[in-house]
Amino acid sequence: EDKVVQSPLSLVVHEGDTVTLNCSYEVTNFRSLLWYKQEKKAPTFLFMLTSSGIEKKSGRLSSILDKKELFSILNITATQTGDSAVYLCAVEEVGNTPLVFGKGTRLSVIA
Amino acid sequence: GAVVSQHPSWVICKSGTSVKIECRSLDFQATTMFWYRQFPKQSLMLMATSNEGSKATYEQGVEKDKFLINHASLTLSTLTVTSAHPEDSSFYICSASSGRAYEQYFGPGTRLTVT
Fold it and tell me: A-chain residues within 8 Å CB-CB of B96?
């Protein structure tokens, strides 16, 4: 049973569109939730969220966490072709345990 | 951010041979290194966690005798795929951490193709 579930699995949009990627989780001792962007190689870190309701923003990307409903969203506004990638959500639990990754959302932005 | 390198970037080998992949943390001491495998269009799958100087902890379903992990120093971990078969063809990524799990830095990955 997957602890971290991302949706949609795949998404195709046109440049300029706004997209919302979802990540829900179910872990016993939640510590933080992380978002990564993976293009052709290793994932690159985007955000770390630990508190509910506080939006993290970086340029056209933003993310927020809801610890009551156990989910996070990643928003990308005014999408560009360079945003095409797999976006991974991962959850960190308390204690020295590895991150738990979701299956990712594959975003394709077409011109 | 911290830098993690992997070598080689891409390797093609014949079925039955063994392949060693190196993961190095270049500018920090990594007490913990993680090895992941990623099949096409799928997410990262954790294979094992290794702490410097101790035996690796393998995830369920990962054969420890097939995927040998050594973490002999704070800057180097190696993954050896023994007697590789075509189904072992995958993208292998390591990450290194000096503290909490979220503070892990990913290497660029190694693409293994077994013919």
Answer: none
